[in-house]
């Protein structure tokens, strides 16, 4: 079976298939195609006459296809071209002719290997597990490679250092010797760096040379700046860029291979793809199987709504404000894949919500939207994912099958299911629709409110609830129905399984930093029946130990403070434990590498107007030829916050020997405040206790005063 595809010259594709002994190469004729639909006064005959002479066009034919889910087959122009790159160029020319929307193109912006697979009905799932060679290198400066560490499952670790040419030839020799199928790189920049290091040809693929598929770029999405690194390909091998692979970071190669089988995106494209990109590929396969073409620059107008309907519809999932404080005997209940199951059980799909064929139906609670009873395509896409994930989880619980493969596949599917709902409201979603997004939220709110009422009727108080999760504790002076029985009743009512997720000996819900209201996503607690092990027994969300910018030393300290709080429930004991970490900092007894802060760059260095530690780190990185682009991460250790400019910080690669103890003490106390805030202790009380050992009562913490006042 084909596992990657190369496009060496116009009109030709090369399929690479894995065999027991290695890989086979098969060149095949290939000419991609896209489709043009005329609307209004548009003329397909005029388009055909105009594009036929184009040197990239090999054929123009009239065919009939469906432009949407609720459309009959329509005459369209099928334009066949020499290369995948020619598709977008020609489509742009055609759509710019005539008035806006007069010509609409389909099957345009598909990634090139995925396009090949869906057009030729090729399954890119490898016939055997691919052999992986891992190549890791420190950040690559303008001066070139410093070292490369190579790791294989069979041969262990190989280290290459010296001048860049020696490193590159050593890596090439190892690749020839081990014949891997996948090159897992710490950064895709390794590819051009290895080729630039030598004079003459270099073979990282199964043939010499490499291709740059896309340049590096920065982008903004939902207010967050991201960075997409340059992408490269080598003949006959898959490149997986660990720095640009969400699925590799969150699952495994096995998890990505499960998505390959579902989406028919070959391994290299599935590895760099976003969750929405893979989900869209699964949708596209379903659409093309039903002869529905893929719209380019999808745009669907939001239907007219009254002000009252808009106010009711423009809300997210339901949340119960957490009861700030420390609670004992708490149980967590979660609806299994709530939003995907709503789509499946309520037949919510872009073409079924507010359908034209049933205008009098009012199925969506609070909104009055109708839902067509004819089966929608979205449940057909999602139900196999839901069923397979449930089966993988069952096999894991029963100890059946390959644990690593099952965990990877289950995790990969989880991320698709988590994102499929939000993607319905995404403006660039190929088949999304905002009314679909609103309907799902409306059903979810009703389900959560009904669940709360049922739990309270059976003697359970909800101390927190958010979207699909509920935390409950027994009501005082009330008899409680067994939670399993209550969950079964709620499951029957909702038609979606409510699962018992966990029990907690105690759980603490944090207030917001600037007032006493509960923070929706900041809590921590100890799971019941588990040994005291911070990596297993404590669940934590939103606090510093879960934030990627937090230095490892602060993470370890906060976890130790949580353990002390759980053991003693004493703010004084927590502050005494905090004191040991403060003393270590002030004595210079902390490895500076464990104080590295990692932050995301939001703009270019020259665009910053304030002199922050982030800017100082960017300046130092630029000095070393490691300029950071918006969306990339920069790591640094604060060595003297009282200085100005780049002297304030040092990069981890500079191996700093000192750090600013007062700066990190402030961050340490901030982390301690998150632990003690649920007990009513704020930063002022912590500072007072650190300064005065005399009065350790809770009143001293709350007022911030010692016993001598």
Descriptors for this entry?
single chain; 709 residues; alpha+beta; DNA Polymerase, Chain A, domain 1; Nucleotidyltransferase, domain 5; Palm domain of DNA polymerase; 5 domains; seven-stranded antiparallel β-sheet; five-stranded mixed β-sheet; 26 strands; 22% strand; disordered C terminus; DNA-directed DNA polymerase activity; DNA/RNA_pol_sf
Structure commentary:
With 709 residues, the chain is α+β, with helices and mostly antiparallel strands. It has five domains: 2-120, DNA Polymerase, Chain A, domain 1; 132-289, Nucleotidyltransferase, domain 5 (2-Layer Sandwich); 309-383 and 429-521, Alpha-Beta Complex (Palm domain of DNA polymerase), CATH 3.90.1600.10; 543-590 and 663-703, no CATH class; 592-658, Orthogonal Bundle (Topoisomerase I, Chain A, domain 4), CATH 1.10.132.60. Helix 9 packs across helix 13 (403-423), helix 11 packs across helix 12 (377-398) and helix 17 (571-586) packs antiparallel against helix 19 (661-676). The longest helix has 24 residues, at 434-457. Residues 694-698 and 703-709 have low confidence and may be disordered. InterPro entries: DNA-dir_DNA_pol_B_multi_dom, DNA/RNA_pol_sf, DNA_pol_B_thumb, DNA_pol_palm_dom_sf, DNA_pol_type-B. One of its GO terms (molecular function) is DNA binding.
β content, as a range? 15-25%
What's the structural domain tally? 5
Structural class label: alpha+beta
Look up the CATH topology of the largest domain: Palm domain of DNA polymerase
Number of E strands:
26
Q: What is the level-2 CATH architecture name of the largest domain?
A: Alpha-Beta Complex
List the total number of helices.
21
- In one word, what is the shape? globular
The CATH class of the largest domain is identified as: Alpha Beta
Helix proportion: 25-40%
Sheet with the most strands: spatial strand order? 17-19-20-18-21-22-23
Residue runs with pLDDT of under 50 for 5 or more positions: 694-698, 703-709
Mean pLDDT across the residues is 91
The major pleated sheet works out as: 7 strands, antiparallel
Catalytic activity: DNA(n) + a 2'-deoxyribonucleoside 5'-triphosphate = DNA(n+1) + diphosphate
Organism: Halolamina pelagica
GO molecular function: DNA binding; DNA-directed DNA polymerase activity; nucleotide binding
EC number: 2.7.7.7
